[in-house]
Amino acid sequence: MGEYCADPWQQVGLMLVTCFNNTYLLFYPSIILGPLSWGWGVPSMIFIAFFSAYSNWLLAGFHVVDDQMFIRYRDIMDFAFGKSMYYITWILQFVNFFLVNTGFILAAGIALKGINSEFSDSPLRLQYFLMITGAVYFIFAFLVPTLSAMRRWLGMSAVVTLTYIIILIVISVKDGFSETDRHYGIKGSKSDKVFHGLSAIAAIVAANNSGMLTEMQATVRKPAKRNMRRALYLQFTVGIVVYYSITLVGYWAYGSLTSGFLASDLSGPKWAKVLFNSLAFLQTIVSQHMFLAPIHEAADTKFLKLNQSLYSIDNLIRRFALRALLFLINTLLAAVFPFAGDFLNLIGSVSLIPLTFVFPSMIFIKVKGKTARTTQCVWHWAIVIFFSVLSIAATFSTIRSIIHNAKVYSIFANI
Fold it and tell me: Among the entry's GO cellular component annotations, what is one (predicted)?
């Protein structure tokens, strides 16, 4: 149902830059540098960025193996390891995309509540804004059915992204120079610091990776391998400079007392805060669609009539029902458990560490192990073992945090 091998690498690169510089970065100073501070945080950010760039670069090289082209990540795993890994990969991707979208709904809902707070001393509950966000996302997903159909929206998204980032940096820097009494200490006991630090590393992984490189690569013009890598170079230069800078500037400006959502810390005139939250909300509409597109594609392939046009009456009705059901579930989950930081940590630990680091090295060992040098095989086995252990440890830490928050906060909390 989608369009393949049609998009220039510049379009995919722009999509990566804008979609990773999304409203999630407003959580990063708190959930990344808050538990790690400067000493552990900055080296961890550099380390994860390097391995993220390398692993994505490596995976892009397996778009075609033995003259067979793969348009989905799970198809590569099926080819290399059989059906069991096909289903495991698809489950991990589904969990990733679903939780990412839940986090987007939360971030956008908090931004809308921030606007309401500027005009009212008793703003509406967060859940009302989550319902509005879910409805807007649903309409966009219904009208823009495929990843390639996003091309006309990317330019507008880039302008919106650039504008709200400039506003954020200007206000944060102003606040940083105005406030001299800042602290950068890490809170909690020794065990808490270790567990929170592992969760923060998982969040760094989520900040750099999508878990859907193969699906994006399927839309890139040939030669797909070279062009996808060009798009990745854009993400890990221009893109990463922006979202890492926001993380560092936000933590520098507000220290360890930064709130969970950076927009809540900003000073400045009312109009600037309203404009900022409005732009942040609008930017998430395009970003969330990129991350949720593989679920839409899978659902469309399964339930739409493939012998009819994507815009036939039957397929429009089916797509309406599929999108409505998905966003209803997503919005309900966000309303019941409004803990965006935990969602981000869970995304990184459960799904993105295996999808980003472990699986590409496993594919290398399987496909090229017999012809590769011994040092290459040892290198990739080391990656598999190290990041598998990290995934288990970070997942345990994140679940521990979720259990703690579930005890502290009630469901449908109005944060």
Answer: membrane
